[in-house]
Write the structure tokens for this entry.
Amino acid sequence: MTNEGNRGRPRSQQARQAILDAAAALLLERALSEVSMDAVAQRAGVSKATIYRWWPTKEALALDALYAEWNTVRPFPRDTGSLRGDLLSLLRPWARLASSRPYGRVLAALLTTAQSDPVFATEYRQRFVEPRRDQARALFQRATERGEIPAGTKIDVALDLLYGPLYHRLLHGHAPLTDRFVRDVVDMALDGILPGPA
Amino acid sequence: MTNEGNRGRPRSQQARQAILDAAAALLLERALSEVSMDAVAQRAGVSKATIYRWWPTKEALALDALYAEWNTVRPFPRDTGSLRGDLLSLLRPWARLASSRPYGRVLAALLTTAQSDPVFATEYRQRFVEPRRDQARALFQRATERGEIPAGTKIDVALDLLYGPLYHRLLHGHAPLTDRFVRDVVDMALDGILPGPA
Amino acid sequence: MTNEGNRGRPRSQQARQAILDAAAALLLERALSEVSMDAVAQRAGVSKATIYRWWPTKEALALDALYAEWNTVRPFPRDTGSLRGDLLSLLRPWARLASSRPYGRVLAALLTTAQSDPVFATEYRQRFVEPRRDQARALFQRATERGEIPAGTKIDVALDLLYGPLYHRLLHGHAPLTDRFVRDVVDMALDGILPGPA
Amino acid sequence: MTNEGNRGRPRSQQARQAILDAAAALLLERALSEVSMDAVAQRAGVSKATIYRWWPTKEALALDALYAEWNTVRPFPRDTGSLRGDLLSLLRPWARLASSRPYGRVLAALLTTAQSDPVFATEYRQRFVEPRRDQARALFQRATERGEIPAGTKIDVALDLLYGPLYHRLLHGHAPLTDRFVRDVVDMALDGILPGPA
DNA sequence: CGGTAATCGAGACGGTACGTCATGTCTTACA
DNA sequence: TGTAAGACATGACGTACCGTCTCGATTACCG
């Protein structure tokens, strides 16, 4: 960014952290559109110019702030011996985290920005979406090695079949995102809606 | 709303339509946050006060405008004789419409508002989500009567399993929302990821 | 300016006056550079946008505000029967007004802007300088008709010879702008520094 | 100022000169308010802190920079044998210098600061005003010794009568500051507007 | 058919946030 | 210690949008 030759006054890490903390706190209080940069600056005890020096837009700041908040709890999926168990141990913590606080509000706002800004969209996906998909992909790899699923299985579709319903409930809110729902999704995705051939 | 006794000058339907058209046109051009009420008023040749008389917020207007735009093409699912065929005939037009224009941009914005406004959220779901779910529900009803699926099938989960992945791709854009993808989702949702019991 | 066809909400004269009053009050308190548009807006109970709608810059506003303040006292020169008496009755009130309050501060600031903005300079002169010169010119006209001064007298030089010293003391402040000084200037300008030819 | 014991790294005279040159160059390009300390620092290849170490304000720097620029041409009034000739040889170079470049712009800005800062005002007058008045005073002294003017002549008023009109045209710009004007001012100041007693 | 009442376009209004810019101070590493 | 680089807190800038308002003009119905 700036300060390439390590010359001049170094960036204040204290200010950086205060900004992220303030932004995260405000984002959990109210909608992104209701959070003003002035408010973030004031709560962080920081100049608005300092925020804009490091984050180009409010959305970019929200992305970083939410990511920091989000990653304080980093789930660690266990190897349960079966794809079903592995998926449950991966998705249940995600669902609990996602619904534990008004994260959906921020995610929706970020998603809105991503619709019009491809660079932002990529950044968003790399932070929030891809890591989870990679974890799930590893589970499917393990299941393939175990022989649980055939080699030709379309993994990317399977990933959408699992995460899609969770995001759907998180964002649309037509029904709650419970542990029970996660189990139902995993079961139905694995076994299918139609009864297996007798 | 107003004018209960039908007294005074009646509401101009011409103005109403011009506003909806202008809003729709602008929403397909740019993000909701980039569309100002002044711009809508100017494009519609209408006073800002006239807009606010009939729509409380920009989001409410966007909801109506998108709905009008969205419903110009109303898919009509055929009875294909099988749940698989029915679902394809229901979901494929939806996916085509959803990805035919930058509707995702508007939907994401409406969804963002819905996160903080329960009344708006209900309105949004009643317009865009529930009708589709009702249609799908009818297909499942038909399948149950046909004996394709058992009586205890959790329909709501199944609905999320089908629409969730579609919304997921529409909103996250990590991969395109193609006919092929719709088919893969339907197949995998119906048959399951795991191979059926031999 | 705007509102050519008398359409739309008419300009609030109340707001206009409140802005001018607030600006004048602040300008008498502190330097123009210390007066912020926010402060004027707040003191006037008015939106900043309303100020900018009618005045392009802070300096233009200051010009209007000072002019209103300045013109509350409008001196009326009497015909005293002699050029000397006429000039005294014209210049003494000017000097008293100019030094009665910190007008020099504002005038210097306006003058500074005028140095870089020809349009503003013209406006400034038309408001503050030309009317006074016109008044003085009339006195000289009367004196010519009386036969006090010859026909070929360079009036414009004479005007500078009278107003120049007054502005000089007002702006440079190397000595006070007293009634006594005005009398001395008038006397010396009329009679000359050198003793008349015996 | 600082560095009384001559300890540590000595002040860079090179930096000092570069700062003054940069400031002078920028001040001749645009108004003082348009000249930022950052711009001066950058043009001088110097740190902003270095400027502030030696000059408390932008105005103080401008004062020094203009003074250096101004004094590159230092007029040397000749003894012409008459007060009229002496004054012309003093004032004509001043007027030429003053109108040769946009010095009026800087002078007006300094004058504006002087209105609110008595210390700065004194400094300004000691640099730009008093030396010229002292020179003129000497001419009047010579004229008194020659018997050209009576002993009781109010010299300070006479000085204002001469410099006042010049500053007036320089700052107000209602008419150009030509050699012709200087001659007219000297003539009219010496001889008076009224015809001498026959 | 004239009065009443709600609508309309136009556009000014108070308010709030925006993103930028300049000021003057500071913190580092180097000279 | 002086310096260049540059980050920092502060605070004003001028713009844009929001949602409300005040006009005069229009258009129905109702008496």
Summary: Residues 1-5 of chain D have pLDDT under 50 and may be disordered.
